[in-house]
Amino acid sequence: MASIRKRGxxxxxxxxxxxxxxISKSFKYKSDxxxxxxxxxxxxxxxxxxxxxxxxxxxxxxxxxxxxxxxxTPNKRSAEKENYRIHRxxxxxxxxxxxxxxxxxxxxxFRNERLQQAGSQAVRHDLxxxxxxxxxxxxxxxxxxxxxxxxxxxxxxxxxxxxxxxPREEELLLQGCNRSTVNYLKPIIVxxxxxxxxxxxxxxxxxxxINASERTLKIPITKNxxxxxxxxxxxxxxxxxxxxxxxxxxxxPIAPGAFRLAWDRLRKRVGIEDLHxxxxxxxxxxxxxxxxxxxxxVALISGHRDPRMLFRxxxxxxxxxxxxxxxxxxxxx
Length: 333
Known about the structure:
Layout: E1 2-7, E2 10-15, E3 23-27, H1 30-45, H2 52-58, H3 61-71, H4 79-90, H5 104-115, H6 120-140, H7 169-177, H8 185-195, H9 199-203, E4 210-211, E5 216-219, E6 228-231, H10 234-241, H11 256-269, H12 279-290, H13 295-302, H14 307-312, H15 318-332
Antiparallel strand pairs: 1-2, 2-3, 4-5, 5-6
Helix pairs in contact: 3-4, 5-6, 8-10, 8-12
């Protein structure tokens, strides 16, 4: 919708359309303001680039972030996580900087402030997102904006986590699940430890993915976009088949955000510190090797296509390897 208002000795035209930033321009005569505003509405409806002479001067970074969240993010598998990231950035002062004023030092300051609140990997994700928003605006939306994100140093990649479960932590977690109102919490934790599946992979399990006769589970949607079928242990298969069959095609119809909150409450309730749900994947992969599975066998289950990445997830305990060596020596005597 267009609005015309008297301003000083002239007239200001403003155009507001859903999904587009407000654009405005001043004119000496009301008739010229009306003509311009109608022309701008027509350009937007036809999908043509806006007249940037005045519009670009008033556009802020938040306009691009909002458009990106509406048009680009919904097409991604990680849409929920990215939406959360965008809305957090929208609450930061950098979202109010005008596009014509954006410089590298703005993003450098943003980086430094975020590092006070989050780890280096999370800040790298924020900067990568901002860089892609600016790139998309320039290449696809016709916005004459540069990409200062490319000119700053990103935080160094943090060392990979090597957190494994300590003695009794698994027992504490499973016992704590009995006091949770989230019925799916315990089977999801058991499956993570038995299969090394990611949280999203577990939450996406459907009944027709299970092949009970062959003791396998199909995982059609994965992080690396390579579907896989994994073998199931007796515990994993029993856990899946014992899940109550409700009205949903998914075994565990719980939103990722709701599960994350339930996991955090469980961890705090049982007094376990610094344990991420993803650490259970590290634990499971390490256990596979401790049981004597080969690299190809573990890679089949975990979905790693590069053995070097698989080793990053493997954290063997020296005492466990020593025990296995002693067992092998005993068998040879």
